[in-house]
Structures are given as structure tokens and as C-alpha cells.
Amino acid sequence: MFGLLGRKLGHSLSPQIHEKLGDYKYDLFCKEPEELDSFFADKSLKGYNVTIPYKVNAFNACDELSQRAKKIGSVNTCIRRADGTLYGDNTDYFGFSYMAKKAGADFKDKKVLVLGSGGASLTVQIVARDEGAREVIVVSRTGENNYGNLNLHYDSDIIVNTTPVGMYPDNGEKLIELSHFEKCTCVLDLIYNPLKTQLLLDAEKLGKNFANGLSMLVAQAVKSAEQFIDKEIPETEIDRVYNELLKERRNILLIGMPGSGKSTIGRLLSEKLGRSFVDTDEMIVEKAGKSIPEIFADNGEKCFRDIEEECVKEISKEMCKVIATGGGAILRERNRFAMLENSVIIFLDREVSSLATDGRPLSSSEEKVKKLYEERFPIYKSLADFTVKTNDDPQVTLNEVLKCVF
Ligand code: NAP
Fold this sequence. Notes:
Elements: E1 2-6, H1 14-21, E2 26-30, H2 36-41, E3 47-50, H3 55-61, E4 64-65, H4 67-72, E5 77-80, E6 86-89, H5 92-102, E7 111-115, H6 119-130, E8 135-139, E9 158-161, E10 186-189, H7 198-205, E11 209-211, H8 214-229, H9 236-249, E12 251-255, H10 262-273, E13 277-279, H11 280-288, H12 292-316, E14 322-324, H13 333-342, E15 343-349, H14 366-383, E16 386-389, H15 394-405
Parallel strand pairs: 1-2, 1-3, 4-6, 7-8, 7-9, 9-10, 10-11, 12-14, 12-15, 13-14, 15-16
Antiparallel strand pairs: 3-5, 5-6
The chain binds NADP nicotinamide-adenine-dinucleotide phosphate (NAP).
């Protein structure tokens, strides 16, 4: 009865979100431009969402529009009324406003810098102005305000990314150096894959408030669902669905000393949760075509770390995985950023005297292990969302990890 109209929808999260919101069927309608006229004329659908690139087509196809849709000039929600006419609304407006509030952003009297000038940028600009922004600056690659004169706007209070820069599979890319924006207190990125873009990771590191686009996606869906089922949905539902999605999608990534049980616990977790398990040490061995002691002996530690960085970057882009990382993977900042993109991070902390030493080039004796532990402990602690003291019984450790994650 309901669904989503777009062109390429393979990775859409909307069916998952709507399944959590109500007892109705929600399909994906992937259409080519020449199929749009017949789609908009089809009266069998009671309502649907519209996404890239058809929001303006939907705007033009509607018989009546909400004030918000008129203001924005695009429609993301269509409702077929009893008399057969098509009504269009734009619930992205509410979605963005909700996302901003979630991050503690208050636009009143603020200078807002919006990166990108496409459809989503327009929604962001209108919400910011409606909520009292003093000034809204749009940065466009080809506009008066562009990436070559950003210094004119280092005094911005709130920054919003509405470009696809940093989105999967181009994780790690960014358009601005956030440290220049000393007055900025809040950064909002409409992207939700990865959950934390490099821009948001920078915001987190600099102690600024931030939010990703997942809350906007869920909030707009809730406002659309209300119109589909003609019933108010409490705002608490947005957080419930958001938190459920986050738990379902985030990787569980294990860090800790060599021999602390990451592979064992990782495998148990993957069995318990029905998720696939990836051990970055195994990825390295496969990439290099030789064992880790052989890589150290033949090519040295730097070569090992370079391959490790490739593996951490590659696997951290994925979602819904259980990942065990090598003990030293936390040493490079680029790896730490990658780990933080999509994962909840668990530090498995095992007594130094119980750590295994066999076949491990950097921790081959108890003395070496102790020194490494002292060096790495502060990094493990600062990176981890949770620390779990490992127990000799893996099932006990597994239960502790599960308590942290769910
Ligand atoms: P769009 O209409 O294509 O606009 C994107 C804008 O980003 C372009 O107009 C362009 O602005 C800028 N841009 C594109 N590539 C760039 C690059 N390589 N470097 C710098 N700037 C670039 O797309 P949209 O519909 O506005 O969506 C934009 C983003 O928001 C997407 O990532 C989308 O997934 C996300 N989004 C999220 C939600 C949500 O619910 N979370 C909702 C809507 C959209 P200039 O040409 O002016 O530079």
C-alpha cells in the first residue's frame, strides 16, 4: 500500500524503518524517468515517499501541496486522497529540525554555514532561517562563497554538510578543516553511511556537538508514516527506532592486547548474533600471502602496519559485522578514525600475566608484553566505548560484552 519512489534504491533503509513503525506493507519503486507519468497517475497506492532524483517531479505531479513543500519546492511524501487527488508534503523539513535539536543546535541569532547547494541544502537553509538564524551562508564549488574563500566564514556558529563528500565508499574524505572554525559549536552531517563521517569525527575530537543524518532519516519517516496511517506517532518513537537501527547496524569492534581473546570472543559473538566475523590479522595474512611473523621478518613492522591500515580502513566501512583487530591496530590515528566510523568499540582487558606470547613478534616475552601494555593501555581506554575485563571462561566475557552492546 505504501513505499518509496526513486531511481536506485538497493541500499535504502526506509523499508526497515517503516517496518518498525507500523503494520503496513512498504515496497521500493525503482523507476526510470520515462515511467514517472504512469507512476504518478496510478491511484492504487495510498501513499509513498520520494527520494533522489524525483522530489521535484513529485512536487510538479501533486494537486495540492503543504506550505513546507511549497517553500522548499520539492516533495518527499505523497498521499492519495479519497477523491483521487495527490497531496504532497516535505517531511525532510521536520527531519532536519529534529536532527538539529538532537545535537543541541539552536539556530536563533546564529551564523550557519551550509556546505552544498542541492535539494537537501535548500531544506536546511529554510529550517535555519525559520528557526531564527542571523545569517545563512551557502558554500558551493561554483558560488560566490566557495571552498577557496572559507576564511571569510571562520566565525560560523553551526556547520551543516549537505554534500555527499565523505559518504560510503569515499569514507574519510572531507571538504573543510574544522579546526579553523573556532566559534563553531555544532556540526551536522546529513550523511548516515558512515555513521560518523570524517567531518563528524573531527567535530567529536574537537569537542563540538554533532549529529549524523540517521536521526533526520528516521524523523522524516515518522512524519510520513503519520500521514500514511492517519494517526499521530509519539516523538519518542523516533528515538526508539533510531536506537534500534543503530544497534542493528553498528559493527562490534574488539580491541586489546595480543592474546587478550579478541578472536575467541569475536567468533562467539558472531555465532550468537548471526553476524559475520572478520579478524583483521587474518585479512593481513591473506593479503600478504604469508604469516605475520614472516611479514615482520621479511618486510619489517612498517610494511605490516601499512597492510594493517588498508585492512582496517576496508573493514571499518562495512556495517553489521563483528571485527577483531590486531593489538597494535590502534597505534595509527587513521586506523582509530576508521574504527570510530561505524563501530561500537570494546576493549578486552586481560591480566598481563595471562596474555599469550607465542607466535607474536612484538610480545614474545612477559617483559615485552608488560611494556607494550603500559604504552597501549591509555590508547585502548580512550578509544573504547566500553572496557570488559576478560574472564578465563569465554562465555562470561561474552555475556559482559553483550550487556555493553545491547
Ligand atoms: P544533490 O541535490 O545532488 O546536492 C548535493 C550538493 O552537494 C550539490 O548540489 C553540490 O553543490 C554538492 N556536491 C556534490 N558533489 C560534491 C563534491 N564532490 N564536492 C563538493 N560539493 C559537492 O543531493 P541532495 O539531495 O541535496 O543530497 C545531499 C546529501 O544529503 C546526500 O549525501 C544525501 O544522502 C543526504 N541526504 C540525507 C537525508 C537524510 O534524511 N539524512 C535527506 C536528504 C539528503 P555545489 O555544486 O553547489 O558545490
